[in-house]
Amino acid sequence: MPEGPSIVILRDQVTPFLGKTIRRVSGNTTIEKERLADQRIESFRSWGKHFLIELPDFSLKVHFMLFGSYRINEDKSWAVPRLSLGFDDEQVINFYACSVRFIEEPIDLVYDWWADVMSEHWDPQLALKRLRAQPDTLVCDALLDQDLFAGVGNIIKNEVLFRIRVHPLSTVGALPASKLRELVAEARNYSFDFLEWKKQFVLKKHWLAHTKRTCPRCHIPFVKAHLGRTHRRSFFCENCQLRYGPEA
DNA sequence: GAAAATGTTATCAT
DNA sequence: TATGATAACATTTT
Fold it and tell me: Do A88 and A134 fall into the same domain?
């Protein structure tokens, strides 16, 4: 469910609830959910993988982690919602298996919008600058760094590196300037392709690297390995994805 | 049916 | 203190 573009889709799907007042609250969350009753929804926003519901005096942050899901005007009969928000006319938004938390401060003070690859305020220059400040970071870690590329997840990581022909174990500092620019540009560009494909329910069939066994360019087996700080799955071609780095 | 996975955070060990 | 392994959360797909 996660990755930034999916949250953008959710944000779009709930626009009919904008300005409506929460009438009923339930769910198995341990937060003080009763606070949400009678609150009017000021806006729905997203930052990276965070889905934000802005209310007059505070906001709610929903993070879907790995397994989270939601239903609009329908129930998952087999599951108890983590949080269910009821509105007039039996309208409802149900969140399942996600993390929900309150944010007390105004969310513009909490989030750096220029770091969100899906945001209109995304700032590639700033991303570049921050990348150059950490030359030893592996590119596979850099792409997953939510302070740098908020919204990028493991699928986007693998697809971006394949597109720009960069080996996941390359270091940021060893990339030629043009490659580094490509990395930043493609992180956003692929995310928008992801968004369109996901909307059309054809995301998976457009994967060129993620979960794939064979390189579509070289027709040789991909390498699958758990790389980087977080040991996340990487699928890559050792032939056409160049490894830039001190020892390579 | 086991294993793995689109993710993150807290805690423990070194 | 910093780094890294491990656990925890919880659901769907392979």
Answer: no
